[in-house]
Amino acid sequence: MIGNWRFAGRPLLAVVAGVLAFSALTHGAGAATLEEIKKRGYLIVATEDDYKPFEFMEDGKPVGFDNELLAELRKTFPVEIRQEVIPWTGLLAGVATGKYDVAITAAMITKERVKTLDFSVPIADSTHYYAKRKGDDSIKGIKDLAGKTVGVQAGSAQLEKLPELQAMLDKTGGKLGEVKQYTSYPEAYQDLALKRLDFVINTIINLKSLVKDKPDVFEIGEPVSGQTVPAWAVAKGNTELLAVLNEFLLAQKKSGKLGELQAKWLGQAFPDLPDSYTP
pTM for the complete prediction? Predict the structure, then answer.
């Protein structure tokens, strides 16, 4: 049994967003096909506003790994690409319902998400780790996470990975403590620094970026999940659009551009990523 759950930051907003996302993902329809996109003359992509180093805003402009890939896609895609920069909570639901054609983001491929979305070839390896405050000697390994308060992003794949952490804790007789959900990860990191949380779970790539920016405040612990990979997402069954996106990504991989951008933004290249992934 996972501990007591509650929303932090802006509770009502997070709850409403979660309900709307669930409703949209379970009842969604109306996504435009590739032919329809070509007829109207533009593709609508959604990117996240605050998920460093994949996508974030800097000096009023969208930057990061996925935004550089998007710049490359603009060079070859047959129609204009229009970009919407939005918070995470509305991103995947918007794609599932057809509001956006594709989520160009690092969306983890999970069993729940493949029910309503189709995913591109993986763009990185994003196994989950925990981060703690620098010098916090109360946490030296997985067993020390028992009973402590953890922060994750609302609606994220990290929530689905918590049972894997609980399975690890079971081996030492421990139980997961309170789980706090946040609208964005920067809010969780702030609460971790302020000792309102004991640890935060995120992908190794995101946590490396965090520690690089604030090495005196945070440090990375151990993995709390098995392998996880992120990818771009389209509505379920939008096969022709997905094929075009996969063709583009595989071409970037073959040319070495994908590895170059991975090294630049994610801290390392991932040359052995599979061309498909089943969670």
Answer: 0.74
